[in-house]
Design goal:
CATH architecture of the domain at 136-240: Distorted Sandwich
CATH topology of the domain at 136-240: Glucose Permease (Domain IIA)
Oligomer: single chain
Mean pLDDT: 82
Strand content: 15-25%
Distance between the termini: 81 Å
Number of helices: 3
CATH superfamily of the domain at 136-240: Glucose Permease (Domain IIA)
Low-confidence stretches: 79-90, 92-123
Radius of gyration: 20 Å
């Protein structure tokens, strides 16, 4: 008797989830319900394209709950290796930029004209500038607000807070609207959310003070810039880093 397709399908074992042997190990993350590759990368201070390459993910829109993904570079990789091209489109809401990956940026030199806040961390930390000139209408809160909210008018300039490279430019992260993420070095990312328009593309190098977007209210109740600084993926209070004004 020849098995029907339905019988054959039932007899086939389920495909094992990716990376289960690495569950619980440092540098790996178990996918939770509602996760996207962009959010996982942001929360771990990485470029989503690198995470896709490290895990041999061809379609970044298809990750499964329970999969275990590498979220730190493999041993011996400094972040400068060219990425493996993705066979399918990037996550929903992403543009279609070139897939070439530039070398990781070294920490930016501190501009002489940018005064540092007395409370700003010292040592090898970056020196930042404010990304917008409006009044702060939302303070950092580890639970409710992962950054600061800066009010303004639609179309006001949004500036890069430090030299860096664009690792995300799109609208695929729920709650952020039109979003730009910059990677400044192996420690710091910044995020710029709710923009009306985005003026840079993925993999583009930007300079501190460069206009990268126009303020808007996408996925927000009012025109504002939501600005985050992430240190090794963890949100930190921008007030500790930005100069006083």
């Amino acid at each position: 008797m020849v098995a029907t397709p339905a019988v054959r399908a039932a007899a086939e074992p389920a495909k094992p989830l990716r990376g289960l042997d690495n569950a619980g190990k440092p540098g790996f993350y178990t996918v939770q319900r509602g996760d996207t590759l962009v959010r996982i990368a942001l929360d771990n201070g990485q470029n989503w394209r690198d995470v896709a390459r490290w895990n041999q993910i061809d379609n970044p829109n298809q990750i499964e709950v329970g999969e275990v993904l590498r979220v730190q570079p493999p041993p011996g990789e400094l972040g400068a290796a060219p990425p493996r091209p993705l066979a399918s489109a990037p996550p929903v809401g992403e543009p279609l930029p070139p897939l070439a990956k530039s070398p990781a940026q070294p920490p930016a030199s501190a501009p002489a004209a940018a005064p540092a806040s007395p409370s700003a961390p010292s040592g090898d930390e970056l020196v930042w500038i404010w990304p917008a000139q409006g009044q702060t209408v939302g303070a950092f809160d580890e639970v409710k607000n992962k950054g600061v909210d800066i009010a303004g008018k639609a179309g006001d300039p949004v500036l890069a807070a430090a030299d860096g490279r664009v690792v995300y430019a799109g609208a695929g992260l729920r709650g952020y609207g039109n979003l730009i993420i910059l990677k400044h070095n192996n420690t710091y990312l910044t995020a710029y959310a709710h923009n009306r328009s985005l003026l840079v593309k993925e993999d583009q190098q930007v300079k501190q003070g460069q206009k990268i977007a126009e303020m808007g209210n996408t996925d927000a109740e009012q025109v504002k810039l939501h600005f985050e600084i992430r240190r090794q993926g963890k949100p930190v209070d921008p007030a500790r880093y930005l100069p006083s004004r």
